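User: I'm new to structure prediction. If I give you an amino acid sequence, what do you actually give back? Let's try with this one:
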Amino acid sequence: MWQKLSADPLFWRLVEDKVTSVTVQSNDTARLTGACYVGRAIVSDIVIDFVEKVPGAFAALASVAIPSTFKIFRVPSPVSAVGDTTGLLVKVFVEAAQQYAASAKEVRYAQRKSRGSLMGGALDLVETIRLRGRGVRHQVAFKRTELISDTPLNRAVFGALRRVEELKEIAQCDVADVLRARSLSLVLSDCAEGALAGSASLQAIAIDIADEVGRRADIVELAELSAAILGDSGFGGAIVSRRTVGRSWFVNLEKLFERAVRRTLRAMLAGVGTVEGATKGVYVFIDTAGRYPANTDIVIRAQEGPLIICDTKYKERPAMAWPDAADVQEILTHASAYNAKVALLVYPAEVGWLRRVGLAKTGCELWVIGLRLGHMEEDLRDVLNQIGLKVGVTAAIG
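Assistant: Good question. You get back a string of structure tokens that encode the predicted 3D arrangement of the chain. For your 398 residues, that looks like this:
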């Protein structure tokens, strides 16, 4: 297997983009190590499956925060079961299609034949004579130039939007995404006739557009997502088909963990505080302007209580374990820049736990949290209540 993988440039693309790392142990053996991504790819007929270290982490996190970005490669992947992951792709695709339709939709000029009692274009003499020959004397035939959206890209996008309507019957798609897809398909309705060729050919068109040199990044991404929807693609889960799609999708669980924690805290503290990312213009040094920003993950400003900063660390930690020195030094440096009195280090865990590390000489109290991914709100509420920030029960996060 290693001889096949090492000879394929597609494998080294995954290594260069830090989806995986490799340690060569001898001429014919090597050890592959995953990073923070989940997904699947086919390299030299070998299926490489990247799964979460914490069982059920992806499903739990995705139920709270939809991935904002995917890492997409021109590496084949097997078509997996239509399910939760397809629903996530639908959401990302519909958002990309909405932005495209609102700001950068392709259009072209085309001549349309028409007839009527009033002429609205260039006279079509031959067709008008034919009308007269059939006894239709109150109408004339004419040609007019119209601005239409019937282009190859728009046909593929239209076909994918219509496919969303079918996927909702077999995949767990958000109702709001299905409604948006219906509205967007009306915007591209003049592509309907050209899209009747079928999803297989439309998928090939979308892949060809994504491969064109010089295309804008947003167009390439939209074409890739359209191809995925038309191919009923997912990632992860059981392989149920021998069919493949020409792209592989990988989700960064580290970023998804951060977004899920931030979104959960924001819902819990609605009306009593704000939860945001790192504040612009906050730096570690006073006299070194513009260098070394304090890029903490989450800043909590409650109406009553201390300013709290929080760093999420998507890596395994034993229950009640002391945090790594590097993590402690990083967050305390950020805390001093914000003048924060409380700092939280958050790790994923199968069993929830909480440990007080201590009071730093800067006056910041550091806590370490082992957060159950399926009970994030419950565990975070207990932590905030324990450190003195009273939080009640919130409504379910949609």
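You can read the tokens as a compact description of the fold. Here is one thing that stands out. DSSP finds twelve helices and 17 strands in the chain.
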